[in-house]
Amino acid sequence: MNSGNSDDNPKFLVVVERDKCTSCGTCEDACPELFELDSESLAHIKGSKRVGNNDELGVETEDCSLDAAESCPVMCIHVYEDGEELI
Ligand code: SF4
After folding, report:
1. Residue 51 in domain
2. Residue 2 maps to a domain
């Protein structure tokens, strides 16, 4: 396929469990490159795909995703490196 991205085997996977999100906006403040609140005021990962009610995005560097995950008061942001959960 000619998808033109590395989504098939990313180094890191960033996941938000939107069902747990309390719309506090902390992740957006900590990592506006990746996170925003959507029209439902739930956390959305920019450019992600929706899996169930989660957002998932494969990325090659963790950037500020770990900052966002650590800042989330309900721990509903997760970051995986090579399939291993970092947070
Ligand atoms: S920090 Fe957590 S609870 Fe707050 S908006 Fe982001 S994902 Fe939702």
Report:
1. yes
2. no
Residue 22 pLDDT class (50, 70, 90 cuts)? very high
pLDDT tens across 48-79, in order? 999 999 999 999 999 999 999 999 999 999 99
> Is 37 domain-assigned?
yes
d(CA 15, CA 56): 5
Q: Is the CB of 59 under 6 A from ligand 1?
A: no
Domain extent, residue 20, equals: 12-82
- Predicted confidence at residue 67, as pLDDT, reads 98
Counted residue by residue, the chain has a size of: 87
Q: How far is the CA of 17 from the centre of ligand 1 (A)?
A: 9
Q: Is 41's C-beta closer than 6 angstroms to any atom of ligand 1?
A: no
- CATH number for the domain spanning 39: value is 3.30.70.20
Within a domain: residue 32? yes
Per-residue model confidence (pLDDT) at position 9: 83
